[in-house]
Amino acid sequence: MLEIKNMTCGYDNKFLLKNINFKMNCGERIGIIGPNGSGKTTFMHAMTRLLPPKEGEILFNGKNIWEIKNKDLAKKIAIVTQDSPANFITVEEFVLMGRIPHFENFQFIETKNDIDIAEHAMHLTDVVKFRDKTLNQLSGGERQLVHIACALAQQPILLFLDEPTSHLDITHQVKIMDLIYKLNKELGLSVVMILHDLNLAGEYCEKLILLNNGSMYKNGSPEEVLTYSIIEEVYRTTVIVKENPLSLKPYVFLVSGRGKETAKDFTTGH
Asked: Which domains does the chain have, with CATH numbers?
């Protein structure tokens, strides 16, 4: 579905993401992780055509992404950012905006089909109960669900999410990540998301891309990427990594300064 070949991109040579090579198959859930300033947002901006590469190319279904018309690309790819300034329109009006890429020439209002699709998206995300409320009346977690509903109304095959759980409590974090997992499994939606929480990334993603200092440090399964040695090397902090007894996924424990001596026993197996 998505292939990146020898890509270098950035901003006026002040920061460059260098020599990125990556392939994504249909139906995968991929998490982008890394310290602040490692290039996560730059990477997503390049993949979503907000930032042209200086070198290399990005292929979507075998075609250079920059050669695809905006409207055609918006029918296939949707992006969920952390928030938007659209605060004073209703939830239903906002979700219906996701249908705009599918409007015919000289179409200015939604058809019954558009309304039905938006309705289905609101039901999938459990925001239909807020349909008549304005976005500024909702909590951060509720607004994030509305943004996902708007993206689903586009009927994409690939969904990008920029820190979908940022600033949310654990209840909304789990609700949103469970929803993303459900959309992937039941609808076959391919997903790429930036995540800061390593445990959420390990629990919900099939593959992880770890960026560091503008390069791809490691690319693989959570078990391959989330090891204590890799995390300590990249994040410059002491951690303990153990297996979640329920999911069998790697779980990262932070270690305070006063616990570092004890941590050595765990990481060496003593």
From this structure: 2-221 (3.40.50.300)
